[in-house]
Amino acid sequence: ALTIGIVGLPNVGKSTLFNALTKNDVLAANYPFATIEPNVGVVSLPDPRLGKLAEVFHSERILPATVSFVDIAGIVRGASEGEGLGNQFLANIREADAIAQVVRGFTDDDVVHVEGGVNPKNDLETINAELQLADLQTLEKAIPRIEKEVKGKKTDPAALEAAVAAKDALERGQLLSHSGIDLAPIKELGLLTAKPYIYVFNVDEAILTDAAAKAALEELVAPAHAVFLDAKIESELIDLDPEDVAELLASTGQEESGLDQLARIGFDTLGLQTYLTAGPKEARAWTIGKGWKAPQAAGVIHTDFEKGFIKAEVISFDDLIATGSIAAARAAGKARLEGKDYVMQDGDVVEFRFGK
Ligand code: GDP
Questions:
Q1: Residue ranges of the TGS domain (predicted)?
Q2: Residue 108 alpha carbon, nearest atom of ligand 1
Q3: 124: CA distance to ligand 1 center in Å?
């Protein structure tokens, strides 16, 4: 499964957030045979459609899609030079498919700030500089090798072009994900600033309820997504009943918990979407990539479904709820039979037809 690595300076609230992520045992509850690594937190993707489907189909249980977060050891100034946990850190972050960078915005005189004071802008610059330096080192090592390979006709010249352009962009202070350079030819280098980023601002209630303050922080990281949460509150929400959670969130001006936001934005940032299946046993969301076609999507349920794919019967979620049942949707002409070239849409309710 695709994972999101959690990074940030020491004392910004990473462990607190990660504890909240792991206390929510969606995996243990829904997938009893899954192995859970100690440094992986799994959260379910909030999807109110599943509850409605379960009502229509009288499903016994609901299985949401999940998003996995990996706790990566703290980054410090000098990480790119191999100081402290630097090298291990860089190896771990390279493996993540997207990065959630936690940035401290809360004030608490009892919690030391490693850079001397709470300053989100400065912290972002510190971390970005380390990631950019690490990428520069990777490119400086790789470019002479790629040059040789291109001369020997073993590598496409596009790889060299991309590597040189990436190096220039980094030297100009850019993050590669914002550079517009086509990095596909040098994907194997695992460049850190080329990954999709989400910024998690761990802030006080005062900021959670202050739209202008949030907009100012959001501007620091645009066009990447920003999530605002209070890690301490999130770790307390986990133990509460849904009604109490709603009340507590409302009192801090939030509509959904920070973990839900993080799951939703994380899922989207990873380029994922879901389709839905429903029956008396379960109402379930299945994770696929955006743009996947029907047979590939069927393969997520079972490889036989992909190999023996014949047709997909697709009803949009809205049509299904409006008509009230599959039979009624069929009668109303809302059930479509789609073939192998059908591109799956978010919220499709699907039944696959397959043969041997
Ligand atoms: P890490 O080093 O980034 O993993 O940070 P921790 O999660 O260990 O947090 C460092 C300290 O800050 C701990 O004492 C936490 O209780 C505290 N802390 C974390 N999040 C918040 C927050 O949102 N507000 C306040 N006031 N303290 C927090």
A1: 271-354
A2: 26
A3: 17
Where exactly are the structural domains of the chain?
291-354
pTM, two decimals, is 0.86
Q: Which atom of ligand 1 is nearest to the CA of 233?
A: 23
Distance 108 CA to ligand 1 centre (A): 9
Q: Does domain 291-354 have CATH number 3.90.1640.10?
A: no
| The pLDDT of residue 132 | 92
Is residue 138 scored above 80 in pLDDT?
Answer: yes
Which pLDDT belongs to residue 29? Answer: 53
Query: 232 C-alpha to center of ligand 1: Å?
Result: 7
Which parts are annotated binding residues for ATP?
A: 11-16
Residue 242: which pLDDT band, with cuts at 50, 70 and 90? confident
State how far the alpha carbon of 152 is from the alpha carbons of 15, 149, 165, 259, in Å: 49, 5, 21, 50
Please, which contacts does 77-82 make with residues 24 or more away whose CB atoms are closer than 8 Å?
A: 77/115, 77/126, 77/130, 78/130, 79/130, 79/134, 80/130, 80/131, 80/133, 80/134, 80/137, 81/133
Quote the DSSP letter at residue 195.
Answer: S
Binding-site sequence positions: 11-16
What is the phi/psi pair of residue 198, to 5°?
Answer: -120, 140
Q: Flag whether pLDDT at 84 surpasses 60.
A: no
Residues within a 6 A CB radius of ligand 1: 8, 10-16, 74, 106, 108, 111, 202, 230-232
